[in-house]
Design brief:
The protein is of the alpha+beta class and about 550 residues long.
């Protein structure tokens, strides 16, 4: 236990708790002692607080086809008008090179699937059908291939932040409806957190930026140290590759611990998995496995040779991580089995109940913005987190960026995006072409602009000058080229030949010009004075004639 506690960043643990409830923990050793005592054998199994592996994997063609078929069924219920176009939208790109572009998806949606007049609010987050489908399709696409660093962890910090990300949150976040469940999982003897580390090493909790692993995907795993593990729901979306990797890593560590080896069989949720793991009677929050009975997110592994058929009971009664003197199970016993109830991470006293300024309800889960306090429902209705700068702003001032499926604040929109002056599409400002005071998206730029070969500036193709060397703007063209007075072709100034007030290309000059034998200046052959001494210009001819005379 001592070795485990020495490895925990207690200061960061306290900072995370404080950011969630605005109270600094007085006795973190109380709940951390619970954790160390219960997780001792899992610590031995992992060989430390965490075990991680780097991976990169994609689904097979057959697996992709099966996922597409399941996706069609889901789409039929939620977006029936999209189903006829589903294969057309993804088949060519996805099954050949796994790389459809967001712009192609958005363009397809706008042109063929959901027209403007059919926009309708379809869920509590007030997204339009196009927005909702775009989000769904993005999650589906991301589930087909994945790479990163998978981590299996019993670190208290990973339990507290298991549902905090820069791009997604769930009810098990420290400020969510089931916040107490994070501590309950943390102090039980069976649960580990499997997650994929993002490159981002910072997360936001209640507006406070915390230096810790940002998670792009995570899953709770309940481990029977006799050789069985049950893998809970995946967040923020189902990813077969990530789930497969987490099973492999748990099997590897569990197999070494039990001396059974890492070979295992997999059972997906068809009723049997739910029977293999159940919330303990003192569990805080809801039972994620049972609320979603039948969800293919859930799976179980059984090591070859394992004989354990017992039920894995997960969840435990934690102390309040702030004051350390109250059992959260005792504090919230009246609401703990109601799935719609809010169960915060601290006791009622420590979590600082507040009055929502919008609905005037007393709440223990709230968000502060400026001098306003919002309950979670009012926050969802009136506020949003900018997906660019991650600040909280009024929803009425939000801007939805279709090309990147983001909702951002107006300041970020003005800083990082432009509206194409040709097609009026919104695009990132680093993917545009500028001509004077006008800006164009890449597609429009390809149609109406060319790049000057000399200065590399964009120019309208109607105003560009073309030569064998490519396109040039007027200034670069006039600096480097001349128009032959005979054939009207553009030639490099260095390759031109001048005669009197006119300039010719070398070909034309060879046909119509000759050098004067006297001054060596190029003259028109037709106007030259031919003598026994050669061809002369008018001036040299006079001088030559005078000498002879």
């Amino acid at each position: 236990m001592k070795e485990m506690l020495e490895k925990v960043d207690v200061d960061k643990f306290c900072t995370i708790i404080e950011s969630a409830v605005n109270e600094y923990p007085e006795h973190p050793e109380k709940v951390l002692g619970q954790w160390a005592s219960s997780k001792e054998r899992l610590f031995e199994m992992l060989g430390g607080l965490t075990y991680e592996e780097k991976f990169e994997e994609a689904l097979s063609f057959g697996e992709i086809s099966n996922k597409m078929e399941r996706e069609r069924i889901e789409l039929y219920h939620k977006f029936p008008e999209v189903v006829p176009y589903f294969d057309e939208l993804i088949a060519e790109d996805m099954l050949k090179n796994l790389h459809p572009t967001g712009k192609k998806i958005s363009k397809f949606l706008s042109e063929q699937i959901i027209e403007e007049e059919n926009y309708a609010v379809i869920n509590e987050k007030k997204k339009t059908k196009r927005e909702a489908f775009n989000i769904r399709f993005s999650k589906f696409y991301q589930s087909l291939f994945n790479k990163g660093i998978m981590v299996i962890s019993i670190d208290p910090l990973d339990f507290l932040t298991m549902s905090h990300s820069k791009t997604w949150h769930s009810c098990h976040s420290t400020t969510g409806m089931k916040a107490a469940a994070t501590v309950s999982y943390m102090v039980d003897s069976v649960t580990v957190v499997a997650y994929i580390k993002s490159r981002e090493e910072e997360i936001s909790i209640n507006g406070v930026m915390i230096p810790h692993h940002n998670k792009t995907w995570r899953q709770l795993v309940h481990v029977d140290l006799e050789g069985v593990a049950v893998f809970n729901r995946q967040h923020p979306n189902q990813n077969d590759i990530s789930a497969r990797k987490s099973r492999e890593m748990v099997a590897h560590k569990l197999g070494g611990f039990t001396q059974l080896g890492s070979e295992y069989t997999v059972t997906y949720n068809r009723g049997r998995v739910v029977e293999s793991a159940k919330a303990s009677e003192s569990f805080l929050g809801y039972d994620d496995l049972h609320w979603y009975d039948g969800d293919v997110n859930v799976s179980r592994i059984t090591l070859k040779g394992a004989e354990s058929n017992s039920v894995i009971y997960y969840g435990c009664d934690p102390y309040c991580p702030v004051c350390g003197s109250v059992s959260l199970a005792d504090e919230y016993n009246d609401i703990m089995f109601n799935p719609s109830s809010t169960i915060p991470i601290a006791c009622r006293t420590c979590c600082n109940a507040a009055l929502c300024d919008m609905c005037e309800e007393t709440v223990i889960e709230f968000v502060e913005h400026g001098d306003q306090v919002y309950c979670s429902n009012c926050f969802e209705e009136y506020m949003f987190e900018c997906e660019c700068c991650y600040t909280l702003e009024l929803r009425e001032e939000s801007v939805y960026v279709d090309c990147q499926n983001k909702t951002i604040c107006s300041d970020c929109f003005n800083k990082h995006y432009i509206i194409c002056d040709n097609c009026s599409e919104v695009v990132p400002d680093d993917s545009v072409a500028d001509v004077g005071d006008e800006s164009f998206c890449r597609d429009c730029a390809a149609e109406i602009l060319v790049t000057c070969e000399e200065c590399e500036d964009f120019i309208f193709d109607d105003y560009a000058h073309y030569t064998d060397e490519g396109w040039f703007c007027l200034q670069c063209f006039q600096t480097n080229y001349i128009i032959c007075a005979e054939c009207n072709e553009a030639v490099l100034a260095d390759d031109s030949v001048a005669a009197e007030d006119e300039v010719f290309c070398s070909c034309c000059a060879g046909d119509i010009l000759i050098p004067c034998e006297g001054c060596r200046i190029n003259i028109y052959e037709a106007e030259a004075h031919l003598t026994e001494g050669g061809s002369f210009c008018e001036g040299c001819h006079r001088e030559e004639a005078g000498v002879i005379g």
